[in-house]
Amino acid sequence: MPEGPSIVILKEAVQQFSGQKIIDVSGNSSIDILRLKKKTIREFKTWGKHFLICFDDFTVKIHMLMFGTYRINERKETVPRLRLVFADGEINFYTCSIKILEGDINLHYDWEEDVMNEKWNPEKAKKSLDKIPKQMICDALLEQNIFSGVGNIIKNEVLYRCKIHPESRVGKIPKKDIESLIDESVVYSFQFLDWKKNYELKKHWLAHTKKTCVRCKLPLVKKYTGTKKRRSFFCTNCQKLHQ
């Protein structure tokens, strides 16, 4: 599943079509895609893992799910979920979820929850974590209404950097470590963005999919943790378990 930084890259890649009119639309989406024809795109936005195509009185929300892809000014052989054709190019979306959000987009999203948005509010994240003291931090970091845009890669790398065991209970983690986690979720997300643009993301991974702790030289544990049962990679020696 693409994480927040990858969706920001998509937003940047399609800026050539901002302000342009859609001259044709097709695809196998269940939404009323013909509603988009002849409409002018006002702007592209992102909220975490959601890609948003904003029009005057509604917005198309695209979620890439686990295996969604897109093509700009080129096509795959398969039928797209949505194809937008402009006077000088096109965008094609495949294997994704598409919905229409009516009215003002600001009524649908809290931009303070998006770790890559300029309105991101770390204090809001702290207050949200305070409400779920018994939840494992590996689950909490993936809560999109707290850390919108954070996915499993970012989760694993941030926990490793902060030396916190993924199965630690939120309420047992010291305040200073919670603050470090919140700050690092933003720092790493923007580093992820830069590395992804330069096609070098994987070479910077310290924990995700790795087998050995670079600090302790001991084997990393791979385990499906928390209620979300997502893969965690961690060191039981240097990542402290707070219970």
From TrEMBL:
Keywords recorded for this protein, A-Z: DNA damage, DNA repair, DNA-binding, Glycosidase, Hydrolase, Lyase, Multifunctional enzyme
A Pfam family assignment: H2TH
Source superkingdom: Bacteria
Signal peptide feature range: none
Domain Formamidopyrimidine-DNA glycosylase catalytic: from-to ranges: 2-93
DNA damage in keyword set: yes
InterPro entries tied to this protein: FPG_cat, FPG_N, H2TH_FPG, Ribosomal_uS13-like_H2TH
Alphabetical list of SUPFAM superfamilies matching this protein: N-terminal domain of MutM-like DNA repair proteins (SSF81624), S13-like H2TH domain (SSF46946)
Xref: SMART domains: Fapy_DNA_glyco, H2TH
PROSITE patterns linked: FPG_CAT
Catalytic activity: Hydrolysis of DNA containing ring-opened 7-methylguanine residues, releasing 2,6-diamino-4-hydroxy-5-(N-methyl)formamidopyrimidine
Cited PANTHER family: FORMAMIDOPYRIMIDINE-DNA GLYCOSYLASE
Family: Belongs to the FPG family.
The protein's name in its UniProt record: DNA-formamidopyrimidine glycosylase family protein
Organism: Flavobacterium gyeonganense
Phylogenetic classification of the source organism: Bacteria, Pseudomonadati, Bacteroidota, Flavobacteriia, Flavobacteriales
